[in-house]
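Researcher: For the record, we're logging two predictions in this thread. I'll number them. Prediction 1 follows.
Model: Prediction 1, sequence and structure:
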Amino acid sequence: MTQSAGLKDIDPGVSVSPEDAGEIWSVLDKYMVNYRMPLEATLDANLDTLIFPHVRIASGQVMLFPTRQSYRDVAMDPSAFLQSGWDHSIWKTRRIVQSDSVKVHVVTAFDRFTKDEKLIATERSLYILEKIDGRWGIRGRSSFAK
């Protein structure tokens, strides 16, 4: 499953060092590859990509996860924010649209699939990544997901 081929766009005029860009794309790749069913097998690696407190804005809700464990507790309840039949997602587009040396805004779109590769939905979102203690991670996400 190819996650990032051709999906490494940076808006003109936005300055991101090649090293930081590589780390940002790597974090987003790791996030997506490790956010899939069965969650029990992949969630710890997915959580490694997040920074806490972490914020998720979607489906008419603002969810604040103060700790890794608080995120884990919610994520392990499939009814919390997963669409019925969802198995995995794949990046469709990713573009860094704003940045400074320790924060970037990445506009994305991703496709959600069932286990048998049936498309469930295409979702648009904004990911906010920050560099804390020399490490890039996802601080928050806002999507139009239902």
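Researcher: Logged. Prediction 2.
Model: Prediction 2, sequence and structure:
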Amino acid sequence: MSQGDGFKKIADTLKSQGLIRSAGAFKLFSFFSGSAHRLKPGEYSLSPILTTPDIVRRLVAGIPEDVKVLIPEGATLKEIDERLSGLGIITKGALSNFSLQILKEEYPFLEDAQTLEGFLFPDTYRFFPKSDPAQVVKRFLDNWRRQVLPLFSETSVIVYDALIKASIIEKEIQPETDRSVVAGILDRRLKQGIPLQVDATIVYLKCGGAFRNCPMLTRKDFQLDSSFNTYKHIGLPPTPIANPGLVSIRAVLNPTETSFLYYLSDPNTKKTIFAETLDEHNQNRLHYLH
């Protein structure tokens, strides 16, 4: 609806787009409610499920100011849900509990996905307060399809498996130059049937899909019986543990082959320390972690 649109044209446009059943009823309600001359121009997101009074109220209220939101690399589904709900964009839990089934035909890359974890591409977005959760999800998925999906066009790598590995690397490895090496280590361990032994998957498990403010891991945490416990279970966890950025995804698609089987991060410098053998890795643990 643009500035200068006549009242009749507005009613006819709403009718032609299937948003109202009767242009006459819309005009009558608007006139008798005193709203006919108070409709504000703007680009509205309306639905046929809205009643005529609902639509009139929205057109009178006008378009609310949108909210700029930065989604950082490595943020989890739960953290993003909390961020958007805290800003009044969605209700709490709308993303975490969103059913993907209705979107899998439109977005075939979701075929193996169990949740939105991994597909909420880190970027800067603008959303309106009280947005339709489905529209918010589609904004994320459209961006993921535009920026990430082309990377898989010339590879036979399973998209969902790659996202899981990329999410692990995103949470585990800070230096970007080390990520392809760690991607190669994950591949080697998977091929040899060695547990991945990734601390980040335990954190994800312990704190219910969040990393912020999660207490330090204890020995008891490593005994948790879950497929996210990559110390007890061989193979990848069942879902990504975060939403990775392009650097981590590219690292997974272009792993560096080495003789390394182990790694750890120096807590002081964040440098990645690699090892070929368990004995060497244990020595590194004593040196850097104690």
